[in-house]
Amino acid sequence: MDKMMDNPWFLRIVSLLFAVLLFISVQNELEGNEINAAGTSVESIPNVPLQVYYDDDNLVVTGAPQTVTLKIEGPSNLVLSAQTMQDYTVFIDLRELTLGQHEVEVQYENLPERLEVRTDPQTVTVNIEELITEEFTVEPDMNERLLADNYVVKSTNVEPNRVSVTGARSVIEAISFVKATVSGEEGLDESFTQEARVRVLDRELNKLDVIVEPEVVNVTVEIERYSKEVPIVIEQEGTPPNGVTINSVTSTVSSIRVYGTRTAVDALEALEVNVDVSEIQESGTVDIELDKPEGISQFNQETIPVTFDVTVEQPEAEPEGEASNDAAAVDPEQEDETTTRTFENVPIVVAGLAEQWSSTFAIPSNGVVNLTATGPESKVNDLTVSDVRVSIDASAISAAGEYTLPIAIEGPDTATWVAELDQATIVVEQA
């Protein structure tokens, strides 16, 4: 054995064997690494954005999903690179298709050819429609449960009140409501203005996928106390003086708006106005202050004009012998001559026009008229412009436009009043 160890050829052969074994070992390890590097992997990549190529200036596409799932299979290093880099694109191309419904294949690009790629879904059904724009009026919307007790919404206004809505033709044709809803805390008792987002809804109140311009509008809400219109009933009280007979007690105001608690307002069927006739000496018109029933806080006017038509009995003639000293005590009105007096530029009042309307005069353009008063000279000379009221009744007007209305004159019965015009023409617009 010692001789063999000392033999150089033996040592050379042993060294060669060790070298061969070492080479084989290293080679096997390298081949194993190459096999692992070239191994096959399968991965699923969810929520990959789906690009849709189409003419988005004139068309709209519905039915395409927002994302798809991508399944890739191939060499592990390529699969890992695709997962990490994500420089690929998944898309559907609709640029050559016509209007209508189509089933199209989901495509991809920028993935290595050595990878096997599948999309889920592999095809999608889309609908290609014409893109149109139309204008709609915005309706203000408010939950009245937000109001304080005994308050109501008097009016609402939207600015701007029209918006442009863009979408697929079928969606635009399905629009039933375009609303701007205001919100707030409960207990609202003051008018306010608020920004509100415009909502576009179908008949089932489902929100529609459209583009609205502008998206936000200003909504003004006018809030007032609970009220209603009730008729006025005039009741006489007291006894007229001796020799005075009350023929009638009337008013040109036949109804009035009352404000107050909901219970009190609902219970009030008519407003009774008590008129004391115990001191009435002659025909004429006076303003009567209105008394507020319990629960009523205010009226739309605090007084109403009441006109008295009376007959005054003349005293019996005295015997001839007793009349000599009183010959001059004759009723001055019997001695008065009849005269006519002109009142110029008396303003015409537009009565009863609802607050949402405004008016301007067309005829006469300045809204004034000349009057003549004819009667006993002593009475006529005492008259002033403040004794007479010229008006037109616009309470029946409910829409904008031009209206010709009769002129009414209210003045003392001691004179006959005549206006130079029988009618006046006004132009009514939204306030």
UniProtKB/TrEMBL annotation:
Coiled-coil segments: none
Pfam families: YbbR
Chain segments carrying region Disordered: 314-340
InterPro entries: c-di-AMP_regulator, Filamin/ABP280_repeat-like, YbbR
Protein name (database record): YbbR-like domain-containing protein YbbR
Natural source organism: Chryseomicrobium excrementi
